[in-house]
């Protein structure tokens, strides 16, 4: 993230330098043209100088304006990305407290239906995974195909599927209030859920991994 910010600052500085350079050239153009003109007050010649200055300053001004606009647009996007990263970091910290202290589970209110404390912790972790995808999708680090495919894989398992069955509507309603791209993300996750359900029943967590073989020295 720090490397990306450093590159962004370098890009902004380059655009700013280019804009200032072009503005300076445009400002110096009348002096250069006047120097080329006669020292006498030749109105026809001064009119020619003025027309030449106007013709030369328009493209310089346009390029400078485009550079400033590009710099401002990049800065706005970087601020938006930083805000999403900060929100994800805060959510990650809250979830970390929850996973380390199960007594905090009750602080989030009751689940849609009664579940065990261990399952609630697993749901909290699934929510953190989906939140991570959401943050990356918002700042264009993930595309639609990746989100939908990852969601379909996640919901093949019983824990992920159970989480979305219980909390999917809350996710979708919250995403709707956060903007068009958040709403699209929730739709993609829901499409992944539908794909997983169409593929068959959820796979029990107990079947995810085979038992580890006994160590050679075990009795």
Q: How would you describe the overall organization of this protein?
A:
With 219 residues, the protein is mainly α. The protein has 6 helices and no strands. It is elongated. The two termini are 50 Å apart.
Task: Compile the SSE list and pairings.
Blueprint: H1 2-36, H2 43-100, H3 117-138, H4 144-154, H5 158-177, H6 180-199
Radius of gyration: 30 Å
How do the SSEs run, as a string of H and E?
HHHHHH
Biggest sheet descriptor: none
Report strand %. Answer: under 5%
Helix content: over 70%
Form type:
elongated
Segments where pLDDT lies below 50 for 5+ residues?
A: none
Mean pLDDT: 77
Instruction: Let me know the number of strands.
Output: 0
Structural class: mainly alpha
Treating each run of at least 4 consecutive H or I residues as one helix, how many helices?
6
Distance from first to last alpha carbon: 50 Å
């Amino acid at each position: 993230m720090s490397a990306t910010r450093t590159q962004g600052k370098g890009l902004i500085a380059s655009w700013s330098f280019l804009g200032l350079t072009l503005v300076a050239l445009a400002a110096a153009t009348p002096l250069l043209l006047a120097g080329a003109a006669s020292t006498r007050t030749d109105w026809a010649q001064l009119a020619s100088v003025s027309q030449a200055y106007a013709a030369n300053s328009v493209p310089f001004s346009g390029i400078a304006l485009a550079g400033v606009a590009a710099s401002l647009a990049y800065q706005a996007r970087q601020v938006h990305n930083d805000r999403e990263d900060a929100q994800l970091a805060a959510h990650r910290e809250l979830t970390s407290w929850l996973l380390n202290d199960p007594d905090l589970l009750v602080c989030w209110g009751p689940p849609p239906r009664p579940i065990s404390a261990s399952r609630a912790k697993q749901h909290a972790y699934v929510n953190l995974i989906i939140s991570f995808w959401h943050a990356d999708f918002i700042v264009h680090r993930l595309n639609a195909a990746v989100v939908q495919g990852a969601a379909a894989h996640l919901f093949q398992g019983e824990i992920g599927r159970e989480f979305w069955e219980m909390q999917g509507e809350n996710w979708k309603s919250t995403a709707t209030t956060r903007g068009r791209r958040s709403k699209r993300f929730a739709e993609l996750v829901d499409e992944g859920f539908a794909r997983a359900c169409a593929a068959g029943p959820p796979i029990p967590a107990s079947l995810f991994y085979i038992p580890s073989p006994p160590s050679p020295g075990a009795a």
